[in-house]
Model the fold of this input.
Amino acid sequence: EIKERITLDMLTKDSVSVLRQKFINLGGEDVQVGDNVRNAYINCESDREILKEQLSEEYFNAIMTVWEG
Done:
């Protein structure tokens, strides 16, 4: 089973970097498969829509707390 780990990095009132990593469990240890995928978004209506579609509500709400704060 492949599990995705998402990290919100460099979150400011103007922008955020979203890091996505995929892992599988081999012998009790998580091993990354594939490369890191990092995308940057700015605090604008179009990027907010993209983030709302791509992220879970928990991550999206965390970003919005900073962007609307």
